[in-house]
Amino acid sequence: MPTIASHRQHRSVSRIGGIVLAVAVLACQPGSGPKTYDVIRRLPHDPTAFTQGLVYADGRLFESTGRLGQSQVRELALETGDVVAATPLPDDRFGEGLALLDGRLYQLTWTSEVAYVYDAATLAPLDSFGYTGEGWGLATDGTSLIMSDGTATLQFRDPATFDVVREVTVRDGNSPLTMLNELEYARGELYANVYPSDYIVRIDPASGAVREWIDLSGLLSSRERTRDMDVLNGIAYDESTGHFLVTGKLWPVLFEIRLDTADAGDIAGTP
User: Fold this and answer.
1) Pairing state of beta strands 114-119 and 104-109?
2) Which segments of 28-151 are extended strands (E)?
3) Among 230, 144, 221, 220, which residue's Cα sits nearest to residue 183?
4) For residue 264, is pLDDT > 60?
5) pTM score, two decimals?
């Protein structure tokens, strides 16, 4: 599923409202504007990896990949992009978001309504949980698991039971914002890829208010992009440096970037 057009099969054309909103976001992207990031370095990334989730902690990089028959949870060598270890999902499961909490990796599936739990030390399967609806992005604030499902609602779930503890509606101004894909919790805020685009939004997890739109469309040059590559997806935070690691579906590069975000109290509007 290498193109935006084929992704409409992946993300279900029946969700017309969400797709219309995403197209509107893409249509109003500015041609130029202040740069909100600095590239620290470029690192190799598996160009066959359909990245759905990315986690970095204690010097270890984990990735969840998608596509039927190709979905895995795996550990990568940061400097080389090599796969250190991997555990495949059943061939009929499409991997999605990934989060690490208390030594356990939690991985969503797209439409199978099951989340898998692994030992982060070995990637050995430990448990699984059922849920209702689609699974998209997953992150943690250190207490709860935070899940997106393609709607504007973020679900805060108990990691012991996967029960929903509370929900928050993400809004850009007064408008609900859907199509929130990969998630990362950092600096007390939530960062989310907006599908299908190369934008990340910075969200207040308490209120759901969008604080900033971050345009990362310039990471890959037009010369580097090929027909096989898809959109930006995958955000991981390195607490030791304050930098972010970002990549995309089928991208050959993982970028370490420093974000120059707006003031935390400045609620920004749509780009």
Assistant:
1) antiparallel
2) 37-44, 51-57, 60-65, 72-76, 83-88, 95-101, 104-109, 114-119, 125-130, 138-140, 145-148
3) 144
4) no
5) 0.88
